[in-house]
Specification:
The complex is a heterodimer of chains A (505) and B (152).
Chain A: H1 2-14, H2 17-35, H3 41-52, H4 57-82, H5 91-102, H6 106-139, H7 144-155, H8 157-160, H9 166-181, E1 183-184, E2 191-192, H10 206-224, H11 242-263, H12 270-284, H13 297-312, H14 314-320, H15 326-337, H16 344-349, H17 351-382, H18 387-406, H19 409-427, H20 433-455, H21 462-465, H22 467-499
Antiparallel strand pairs in A: 1-2
Chain B: H1 7-31, H2 43-63, H3 78-98, H4 100-116, H5 120-141
Helix pairs in contact in B: 1-2, 3-4, 4-5
Classes of the chains: A mainly alpha (505), B mainly alpha (152).
InterPro entries (chain B): DUF1468
Keywords (chain B): Membrane, Transmembrane, Transmembrane helix
Domain DUF1468 (chain B): 12-147
């Protein structure tokens, strides 16, 4: 009952004109950036994160959530119309979305994608309302050993975020942790890794690193590939026909359920669930031979799974502070800019904030549907903006984004340097998401580790002696195995699709 | 001497091992400031140093295996890419010297020329429009203060 009251209070807050405006703006701007070819949700949020820093926390996070959903939808638009998936999770959408667009049915595909995303997003948010407070309530019993175990659990995410080589993923994670150590040590107060350079005493700003690794590197990739935006034909009417509705209803529900329940597991990314949903749909279909040639069910199911997983990802993020996907890792950074640490105490200490954000997700999802269906033509036109204009504009925005957090040119230089590094990492297939994840989690891991060791007089076995931390560690081991198996399967599918000619960004 | 099959991974592995040594040295330096042998600011660096060395060694071995040869995607536009990176580096320096607005105007004109391959006239007009928009939104509206340079 309490949850319902809090949710209603959240709705009252979310539909204030200012917050509605932020949700609408976030959804619009997110779609705007997400639609730009090659810029996926992660890059979109990275570019726009500093822009929200001028807002107060609730409005800022509402806008960020809107940007997140908007960018996800924008990514689907380019996947369907241009065969450019912004992220691996959009690859299954390309498989049937692009053939549909080639047949002149891009409009209905976009419409079904928006509606399936909306329905699954709502399912995910309902799940968030039901599950997150329960999880957070349990998590209130956490002490330093439990937090330390939780950080170990977060490490298992590295498997699903590895993108191939586990050794490289863990090395990048170690690099991220090391970067987070630069600055003053928490227990001695002595500078670490500063090598006599006073600028390093303040440590690296996470936004500069994120902007560099994602946004600037993405622009450099575009320049390196001489990226051009080309749209094929007219997408047709965006409102699906009766038969499209009929064909898509069941796949949407199935995809949403697969996406939501698997998305609850930290480490199970939207890439995994969207492929699973697509394959499931192909298996249950009476006409599996139509998949890959323009089956509307092949758009509805992965899109629903993708969005349900994205919404479900907010549950471990809000209640445990664990981001289960790259865009959520950037959102976690957004929380931290406002001095809010997601985790068990977030529900306890900032209930009004959390429930307003949850309520605004309903609003944001609805707004996305209302705004995007009539505006699809605008997004199609946007993909025609030459890259030669977009790239310098994005680079200038990145400069402002990196500078505005601490008003420091050092941060701008760091962003540019990491942009160059990010390009090299992309070229030689070193995954950058583990680096960002560990950079964000580094201080939390160190703090919980030191507190645990102090508490137990240097005996790390305390983590195995306390029931909750032991359960978390066992869950981490189980998740590691599940993630390894699912990851291997997804990699195999991505390779298959690459061989068939899908251009995986 | 047998050469590694995957040279980029080999170099990555060598750099990782070198990073491991550097991080371990820093951990050793920090050890002097800690009250306990196992707990302090040196603990995580020490663990990370070990992780870098072990995983770097594993990658080193892996780079000699004939499994997958990492090849850089051929980039016919490497000159544009390098020019763009050089311009960004110059931008950092210029902001401090001539101020944010002038530096943005100059560097964005070059970027439009290099990335978009526009003529100088178009590039300068685009740069002026972009700088004007940034001025209105970020300096006039959002009141962000940028460096004004040595001359103002």
């Amino acid at each position: 009952m309490d949850t319902l009251h809090l949710l209603l209070a959240g709705f009252a807050q979310a539909i204030t004109p200012e917050n509605l405006l932020m949700a609408a703006l976030g959804a619009l701007v997110g779609t705007f950036v997400g639609v730009l070819p090659g810029l996926g949700p992660t890059s979109a949020i990275s570019i726009l994160l500093p822009v929200t820093a001028v807002l107060e926390p609730t409005q800022g996070i509402i806008m960020l959530a809107g940007i997140y959903y908007g960018a996800m939808y924008g990514g689907s638009t380019t996947a369907i119309l241009l065969n450019i998936p912004g992220e691996i999770s959009s690859v299954p959408t390309c498989l049937d979305g692009y053939p549909l667009a080639k047949k002149g049915k891009g409009g209905p595909a976009l419409g079904i994608s928006a509606i399936a995303s909306f329905a699954a997003g709502i399912l995910g948010v309902v799940g968030l309302v039901c599950f997150a407070p329960i999880l957070a309530d349990q998590a209130l019993k956490f002490g330093p050993p439990e937090y330390f175990a939780l950080m170990i659990l977060a490490l298992t995410l590295m498997v699903s975020l590895s993108g191939g080589s586990l050794i490289k993923a863990f090395l990048m994670g170690a690099f991220g942790y090391t970067l987070s150590l630069v600055g003053l040590g928490p227990s001695s107060g002595m500078p670490r890794f500063d090598y006599g350079i006073p600028l390093l005493d303040g440590g690296f700003d996470m936004i500069s690193i994120i902007i560099g690794l994602f946004a600037i590197a993405e622009v450099l990739k575009g320049i390196g590939e001489k990226r051009l935006a080309t749209v094929i034909g007219a997408p047709g009417n965006v409102y699906p026909s009766k038969s499209d509705w009929k064909k898509s209803a069941a796949p949407t529900i199935r995809g949403g359920l697969v996406g939501f329940f698997l998305g609850l597991l930290p480490g199970c990314s939207a890439a995994i669930t969207s492929f699973l949903a697509y394959d499931l749909e192909k298996k249950v279909s009476k006409h599996p031979e139509q998949f890959g040639k323009g089956a509307i069910e092949g758009v509805a199911a992965p899109e629903a799974a993708n969005n349900a997983t994205s919404s479900a990802g907010f549950i471990p993020l809000f209640s445990l502070g664990i981001p289960s996907s790259p865009p959520l890792a950037i959102l976690l950074a957004g929380f931290m800019i406002y001095g809010l640490t997601p985790g068990p105490v977030l529900f306890e200490q900032h209930p009004a904030f959390v429930w307003t954000v949850i309520a605004s997700m309903f609003v944001g999802n609805a707004m996305l549907l209302v705004l995007n269906l009539p505006l699809v033509w605008v997004w199609v036109k946007l993909t025609k903006v030459p890259y030669g204009i977009m790239a310098p504009v994005i680079l200038m925005f990145c400069t402002i984004g990196a500078y505005s957090v601490r008003n420091s040119l050092f941060d701008v230089a760091v962003a540019f340097a990491f942009g160059g590094l990010g390009y090299l990492f992309y070229t030689y297939r070193w995954p950058v998401v583990p680096l960002v994840l560990c950079f964000i989690l580094g201080p939390l891991l160190e703090e919980s580790f030191i507190q645990t060791m102090v508490m137990s007089s240097g005996d790390v076995a305390i983590v195995l002696q306390r029931p909750i931390s032991l359960v978390i560690l066992l869950a981490a081991a189980a998740l590691m195995l599940v993630s390894l198996a699912l990851n291997r399967r997804t990699q195999k599918r991505v390779r298959e699709e690459r061989q068939r000619g899908a251009d995986v960004a | 001497m047998r050469l590694p099959h995957n040279v980029p991974d080999f170099l990555g592995a060598v750099l990782s091992i070198a990073a491991g040594v550097l991080v371990s040295l820093e951990a050793y330096r920090l050890r002097a400031y800690s009250l306990s042998r196992y707990v302090g600011d040196h603990t995580l660096p020490a663990i990370l140093g070990l992780v870098f060395v072990l995983l770097g060694a594993a990658l080193l071995v892996h780079s000699f295996r004939n499994e997958e040869r990492a090849k850089a995607p051929p980039s016919p536009h490497r000159t544009s890419l390098l020019l763009c990176l050089a311009l960004l580096g110059a931008y950092c320096l210029l902001i401090d010297i001539v101020g944010y607005l002038t530096a943005t105007l100059i560097v964005s004109a070059f970027l439009f020329r290099v990335v978009g391959r526009y003529g100088w006239g178009t590039a300068i007009v685009l740069a002026a429009v972009l700088t004007g928009c940034l001025y209105v939104v970020f300096i006039m509206w959002l009141q962000i203060s940028f460096p004004t340079g040595f001359f103002l």
